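Hi P.,

Sorry for the delay on this. The queue was packed all week, but I finally got your sequence through. Input first:
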Amino acid sequence: MTQLLLCVGASGSSQQAGASSWGTRRSEQNINQTFPAGQKSSESMSKPPLRLMECCGKCWTTKVVSEEVVGKDKCVRDHNNFRILSTFVSLPSRKEIRKLPGHLHPNTKLVLCRLMTKCTRTNCCFPHGTEELTIWQWMLNNGVKSLRDVADKFGGVHRQPRSTAGNRTEPRGASANGAFFPQSRAENASGKRKSSEPSNFTRFN
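Then the structure:
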């Protein structure tokens, strides 16, 4: 009888120890799974090295930058399906940034494509420029999957709403014919002077 009681007591203590260790492992597992592997919280991320702007893919085929009308899923030139057909460009250079290939592993060391912009491969997984390489590498290192997340959450250009007067809202620096220029060139194209200085005024630095 004494031996039986000892066996029962030993079995109960071992179950309690197992439950305690199992609970510890589970809590540690929950902590580790707060963020997926390779992904960081937005508070711990550094800002992207470049700013991105989401623009209409149809307009971009002619190198015209058109923003989205907020809540309408179309661009300021009335092209529909903005979010499906959108293109991302870097600022201020306005170079197209392709979406990050999904099969690349976190912390992969990227190298430039040998053909660069002359590459004709549809699904080329090598960056076609230094700015694209910089953005892709930052996304891999920080666990960011979408260019839209970079543009919307991490210092990208915010979309402008449609004007209440019914006029089309053009991005800052757009001229009357729809071409996108830096602000100084856009002002010259529209015939407006950059300042109120007289035409014969000469500035000496």
